[in-house]
Amino acid sequence: MDKSLSAKEEIKYIVQPGGKLIGTIRVPGDKSISHRAIMLSAIADGVTEITGFLEGEDALATLSAFRKMGVMIEGPKNGRVTVHGVGMHGLSLPEDTLDLGNSGTSIRLLCGLLAGQKFNTILKGDDSLAKRPMGRVIDPLTEMGAVIGSDEGKVPLHLEGGKVLSAITYELPMASAQVKSCLLLAGMYAKGKTTITEPAPTRDHSEKMLAGMGYPIEVDGNKVIIEGGGKLSATGIDIPSDISSATFFIVGATIAKGSDVTLKHVGINPTRTGVINILLQMGADITISNERETGGEPVADIRVRYAVLKGIDIPVGQVPLAIDEFPAIFIAAACAEGVTVLTGAEELRVKESDRIKAMADGLKLLGIDASATHDGMIIYGGLIGSGEVDSLGDHRIAMSFAIAGLQAGGTIVIRNCINVKTSFPNFVELATHVGLAIEEHDD
Ligand code: S3P
User: Fold this and answer.
1) Which domains, and CATH codes, for the chain?
2) Which of 110, 244, 323, 399 to mutate for ligand 1's pocket (most ligand atoms within 8 Å of CB)?
3) Ligand 1 centre distance from Cα of residue 166 (Å)
4) Mean pLDDT in residue range 101-123
5) For residue range 358-403, what is the model confidence (pLDDT) as tens digits?
6) DSSP-derived 3-state class of residue 94
7) Which residue in 189, 4, 34 sits closest to 96, CA to CA?
């Protein structure tokens, strides 16, 4: 029996001030790509060998859901997973509810994939997932003919099987790769051609992987078109390191004098590199080398050295390309000279926590002049002090305040850090290895 992903113990980080980051490291595999690798290889024809898989709780929740639906999956072991695909119609009724823990990507993509199956499924998650909006996937899926029961668009979601889905033409009301991907997965099971229009470019890992596994998909400007009735062929998938996890070291090395860190084999898909564009505009010293392609995704080594940063108005076009990196970018802004202004980022309010509120509260507590706005934040660079902040169980908030310790005037204590395991299980070990004075305590 799987341990419930919803009941968790407490972990806190204690970070001593100062230090610098030195060394060469490889952060774990990309979370978004790890989810998609399991989902698509599970319904492919043939056996897929995955390398670089993220052994974090979110991606493991996806893996375990497919095991429950009858897919034979070997591993993970050192990032290696072997998936014995069951074909487009080979999934079977799970014995119980699928628990996706903290993972929004898992539940939203699975909704699309499972809406067109013959059997019923119930999807649930932890307290954070229970607060997040699911109407954004329920509404368009319902338009396609799916029947999904929920209490006001919140988990648990009850998906009725045996429904015939029809293709739709859908304009995404928000820039969301999760909603886009959900509809692409449902579109594979729908009659006709589903067309999705995005208001701004978002991560395109689903499109790339579908094409790489031989499923016809058309990308035409801001439209993605997929026709039902195709199939997927197994292939090797090498998952690059996650730029979202690399970000904590990119920001850490940028703000700490004397730092020089190289991050190996990081995914630099242009739909994910907003953080690099933003930090470069602020004056960061970042060099990209050894650019190559793996599994259809661009990767490179990223070297970061300390630099003096200046505050900027963050270009709105970069927001969806850096959406998961804002907690760390706010730390960079707190260490910059002058004011940084973020707008157009209301999506941050519905992530694993309300990231605008969580970061503004934490920064203020540490002595930084930061004000939350409805869709962003205004941060005046200053001196980070000391204190005890609450990550609200949000992995990226926890890691962002951890690297703030490099520039802090005193000890920073961060509560509620258990969910770092969802995306970066060896964060404390790697951070310690390159020079962050961080300790993990059971509370
Ligand atoms: C993801 C898309 C983004 C991102 C999330 C992962 C994905 O969410 O924040 O961490 O893998 O598709 P939205 O689509 O809600 O913006």
Assistant:
1) 3-29+240-442 (3.65.10.10), 31-237 (3.65.10.10)
2) 323
3) 25
4) 98
5) 999 999 999 999 999 999 999 999 999 999 999 999 999 999 999 9
6) coil
7) 4
